Amino acid sequence: MNAIEPAAVIRRARGRYGRRLLILAHHYQADEVVAHADFVGDSLELARRAAREKEAEFIVLCGVHFMAETAAILSPGKKVYIPDPQAGCPLADSAPMDAVSRAWELIARGDRPITPITYVNSSARLKAFCGNHEGAVCTSANASRVVSWALQKPSVPFFVPDMNLGLNTARALGIDSGRVLMWDPGLPDGGISPGALGNADMVVWKGWCPVHYPSFTREDVERLKRMRPGIRVVMHPESSPDTVEASGEAGSTSQMLSIIDTLPQGSVLGLGTETTMVRRAARAMRGRVEIMPVREVFCEDMAKITVEKLADTLMGLETDKGRVQVPEEVAFLARKALDVMLRV
Ligand code: 13P
Ligand code: SF4
Asked: Whose CA is nearest to atom 2 of ligand 1?
């Protein structure tokens, strides 16, 4: 396929399917892909957009696999595709279902009620597990609301799989860090003694996103602040609590972009997240707001989606190539956990 062909193929598919086709893209997608999307958003917005879709018969999700799975769960009856099924997420993979079940057996054995909460960056089966145990899903945009909901039940949230989002959320809610237990899946019994569970206000799975941790550090933020006195810096909450503390502010990708809209002309903003999005925001705001990366880091999985693969997927919509399907018994329970998230 030469350079102009993908755009022509995509235009042809648009002409052929009209409103029967919906293309969704995450903020970390390349400009050439985003140019063809009907809607661009963070994980929460993509989930909401898929859930409310009425007309489309085909949804193509330009993002990573768990995002397409989430869209398939929330849009029963629609056909959902991903342009490259190999676009996974190492954070989601860090919590395989058998390891989480083993942890659950030990954690839920005590007399205090436990609520499993999974970050949306997780498998459909883990979401279903949460739905089956009166738990919920959250994203980086609403983790505080979902964890508060679990605390108010009252119960002890068991937060899987991103330790940094879990710890940043605990801190934002004023939970004493000494009462947050870390479950390390690499250690026998998670590395915690059953007695310690009785004093825990939250249990957090030791997983992380390699794009945001340990790449962004306190030193990066402090260097930027020294270089540009007065700069406002916002970190993605998948970064360490130490880095977030240095910046003073955390937000999901869409929350970062909303902050830009509120800034007066001539402001300088540092963003600590994936570089594709930061560069696009910097280009869009050139001459009005200066946007600086805290450090340049790319998500290799997001980059697997290309305009060529998008065109290929659109050509094969009537076959099951690239189609993401979730068995209904899994989707039913996962939807329960996602519905809590969309409600709170
Ligand atoms: P949000 O877009 O929800 O902030 O998530 C970032 C991310 O890492 C998605 O994988
Ligand atoms: Fe996964 Fe991190 Fe890439 Fe998001 S940025 S898809 S959490 S590896």
From this structure: 42
